Each structure stands twice: as C-alpha cells, then as structure tokens.
C-alpha cells in the first residue's frame, strides 16, 4: 500500500506524513482505508511515534479522521466539502491576486515557467500539481503571509479533489492540460499588463469557472 520512507531523523515525521499524504491524494490509499498505527509503521519501516505524529498532521489537513474509538481512517470528500473549498478559494485567491499584481507585473517569470512545464506535462498527476503550484505562486507574490497560510492549509484537500476528478478522466490528459494552460495564460497576460483590480476580477472569474467542474451530489468522483 505504501512506499518506503527516507529515514532521516530530522524530517522523519514530515517524510512519513508526505508519503501517506501522496498515497491518499493519488488514490493508492482510498477513502475508508483504516490506518492502523502499528501496521503503517511496519510497512514504512519506522517507529510508531512518527506515524502517530503524521496522522495528527493529516487530520489537520482534512485527509484523515479518527473514529470515536481513536482509529484513523482515510476520509471521503463530499459535495458539501467541495462547495466549502470553492467558497474559501473565492474568498482568498482574488484578494491575493490584487495584492500580487504589482510584483507579478514586474516579474512573472515563475508563472511563465509553470505554464511551460504544464504544457509539457505527461500525466494528469503532474497537471494537478502544477495547476496548484501556479495558484500558490500568486498567493506567495501577494506578500500576505496569513493569506498564504490559509491557502496552504487547503491545498491537500484541493489536490485530493483534483486528483480524483482527473483519475475519472484518464483519457482526457491533453484536453485537461490544454484547458489549464489556456486559462493560466489569460491570467498571466492580465498580470503583465492590467491593473490590480483587473487581476482580482480575472482570478474571481477563474475560480467561478472552476466551480462549474465541481460535481453534483450524484456525480462525485469515486476515490
């Protein structure tokens, strides 16, 4: 179920959490899977302490839950979860784009590089990660650390949802990649030549467009 984890003592908990996180996000460990502390520790070749700490981290990120008896399990995302993620993105990202506009107008090289990498992405997994990287670049350019922290706290669930959606459209890698590149290119051009208000507006439009992808209760992608 899980892959080997690097055993550097300095980052053992973080490495354990990252391995568990990636396996959950990319469907290797599906929703509903029980994460027994001892079993996970054995599979990863680590002690139970970093596993316990990693599970707490993943609970904060919304990827796992604990039953009333204290057993960890991989959470499922519901349409209501997706709706809340949309509302939070709509609150955070247009505002961050306004703050980021001046800096990105002067230097949008990171966004340009991201779009180039996305245009050559071979897998939907890469498209998913690069898509969120693009938005994180804008957040970080806003120089608003609290906005950045709030958005980063959402990223694991955003990546989980996008990965699940993309896995349900494995034959559409090219179309998904192209749609992402075109949308991000429009945003880049706005940052290069328009006002902060325009950057805020196009980002809001982008997030509202993203909302149209969210599944209805009967169309939720399977884990």
UniProtKB/TrEMBL annotation:
Report keywords, A-Z. Answer: DNA-binding, Transcription, Transcription regulation
Task: List the Pfam families.
Answer: FCD, GntR
Q: Which CDD domains match?
A: WHTH_GntR (cd07377)
Under PROSITE patterns, the record lists: HTH_GNTR
Describe the location of the HTH gntR-type domain by residue ranges: 10-77
Q: Which residues cross the membrane?
A: none
- What are the recorded GO MF terms, alphabetically? DNA binding; DNA-binding transcription factor activity
InterPro entries listed in its UniProt record: GntR_C, TF_FadR/GntR_C, Tscrpt_reg_HTH_GntR, WH-like_DNA-bd_sf, WH_DNA-bd_sf
Q: Which Gene3D superfamilies match?
A: GntR ligand-binding domain-like, Winged helix-like DNA-binding domain superfamily/Winged helix DNA-binding domain
PANTHER family registered for this protein in UniProt: TRANSCRIPTIONAL REGULATOR, GNTR FAMILY, UXU OPERON TRANSCRIPTIONAL REGULATOR
Q: What is this protein called?
A: GntR family transcriptional regulator
Species this protein is from = Roseimicrobium gellanilyticum
């Amino acid at each position: 179920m899980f892959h080997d984890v690097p055993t550097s003592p300095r980052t053992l908990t973080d490495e354990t959490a990252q391995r568990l996180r990636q396996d959950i996000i990319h469907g290797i460990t599906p929703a509903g899977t029980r994460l027994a502390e001892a079993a996970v520790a054995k599979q990863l070749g680590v002690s139970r302490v970093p596993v316990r700490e990693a599970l707490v981290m993943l609970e904060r990120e919304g990827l796992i839950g604990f039953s009333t008896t204290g057993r960890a399990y991989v959470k499922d995302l519901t349409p209501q979860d997706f709706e809340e993620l949309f509302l939070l993105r709509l609150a955070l990202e247009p505002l961050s784009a306004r703050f980021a506009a001046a800096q990105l107008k002067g230097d949008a090289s990171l966004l340009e590089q991201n779009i180039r990498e996305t245009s050559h992405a071979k897998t939907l997994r890469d498209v998913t990660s690069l898509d969120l990287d693009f938005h994180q670049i804008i957040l970080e350019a806003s120089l608003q650390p609290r906005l950045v922290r709030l958005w980063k706290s959402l990223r694991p669930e955003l990546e989980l949802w996008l990965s699940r959606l993309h896995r349900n459209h494995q034959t559409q890698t090219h179309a998904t990649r192209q749609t992402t590149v075109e949308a991000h290119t429009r945003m880049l051009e706005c940052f290069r030549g328009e006002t902060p208000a325009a950057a805020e507006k196009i980002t809001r439009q982008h997030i509202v467009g993203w909302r149209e992808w969210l599944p209805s209760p009967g169309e939720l992608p399977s884990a």
